[in-house]
Specification:
This protein is of the alpha/beta class. It folds into two domains: 3-27 and 64-152, Rossmann fold (3-Layer(aba) Sandwich), CATH 3.40.50; 156-288, Hypothetical Protein Tm841, Chain: A,domain 3. The chain contains eleven helices and 13 strands. It has helices at 45-54, 66-78, 96-103, 121-136, 141-152, 165-169, 175-184, 208-223, 240-253, 266-272, 285-288, and strands at residues 3-8, 23-26, 29-32, 35-38, 60-61, 83-88, 111-116, 156-160, 187-192, 199-205, 230-236, 258-263, 277-283. Strands 10-9-8-13-11-12 form a six-stranded mixed β-sheet, sandwiched between helices. It is globular.
Length: 290
């Protein structure tokens, strides 16, 4: 058995991160001012932030093209990969899971598995990367999916957005939450609910600095006493200086945790808006395996 991994561009993995790993990435189309861009191919995050700021219309996305996914499977089969694990952003965010599950029966000569990460951005990316490492080492499907289950259970994230209307218009947050946020001019702390795997308002905070402070408190509480090392990221959508400053503060306050930087690309920024900032974390398998 030879296993490969297929994911979507919202994993925000760089070429260096997946170098020499059996991982393929399919793009997520983003539509802005009637122009379709392929995330990760023909528009950079910085270019998208600028176009989004200048546009009068809200952008929108569609799920990765089925044809692109099938092409990736065909190419992998030609390279001898008889098994492919598809790991995409949460099924509560995209319909790609059901699309590929339905199409899997028509993929001949290949065992196709569709795994719900229940998450997105770099946390999805880290799950994909670790699956690729195991696949390259010769692990079985069961061993890889068992690892993914355990890794998925260690994920956590809190984020703050500038404008809730992006989430409301995209159907990722209830209109009631968006209305309250706009009326009170609050900076709500958002998260992905552990049960529904949908974006929810965790707490309503009055100022951005208080929101950051509260996220740090929640992060400290949720990571305290864990019997495994943790890796965390500060993730931004067009505010790199602010993100760098927060990362430095977090590293000083939590010296035992490895922090890094990541970003919200065009597809996710479409739904949360530019200027958003997040703290995301997961078990650090790189340290566990040492």
């Amino acid at each position: 058995m030879k296993i490969a991994i297929v994911t979507d561009s919202t994993a925000y993995l760089t070429p260096d991160q997946i170098k020499d790993l059996p991982i393929r990435i399919v793009t997520t189309p983003v539509i802005l001012d009637d122009v379709t861009y392929n995330e990760g191919e023909d528009i950079t995050p910085e270019e998208f932030y600028k176009k989004m700021a200048a546009s009068k219309d809200f952008p929108h996305t569609s799920q990765p093209r089925l044809g692109d996914v099938l092409t990736a499977h065909k190419e992998l089969l030609a390279e001898g990969y008889d098994t492919v694990i598809n790991i995409y952003l949460s099924a509560t965010i995209s319909g790609i899971h059901s699309t590929i599950s339905a199409a899997a029966r028509n993929i001949k000569g290949q065992n196709v598995i569709v795994y719900d990460s229940q998450i997105t951005i770099i946390l999805l990316g880290e799950m994909v990367r670790q699956a690729g490492i195991m696949a390259k080492a010769g692990a079985s499907v069961t061993e890889i999916t068992d690892m993914l289950d355990k890794l998925r259970a260690t994920t956590g994230e809190y984020f703050v957005v500038n404008d809730l209307q992006h989430l409301v218009r995209g159907g990722r947050l209830s209109s009631t939450a968006g209305f309250v946020g706009g009326m009170l001019r609050i900076k709500p702390v958002l998260t992905i609910d552990d049960q529904s795997h949908k974006i929810v308002v965790a707490e309503k905070i009055r100022t951005i600095n208080k929101a950051y402070a509260r996220i740090e408190e929640l992060f400290a509480k949720e990571t305290k006493g864990k019997n495994y090392p943790i890796k965390a990221w500060v993730v931004d959508a067009g505010t790199p200086e602010e993100a760098d400053r927060w990362l430095a503060e977090l590293q000083a306050k939590f010296p035992k945790i490895r922090f890094a930087r990541s970003f919200f690309g065009p597809a996710i920024t479409t739904h949360i808006g530019a200027g958003s900032l997040a703290l995301a974390w997961i078990a650090d398998r790189d340290q566990i395996s040492k």
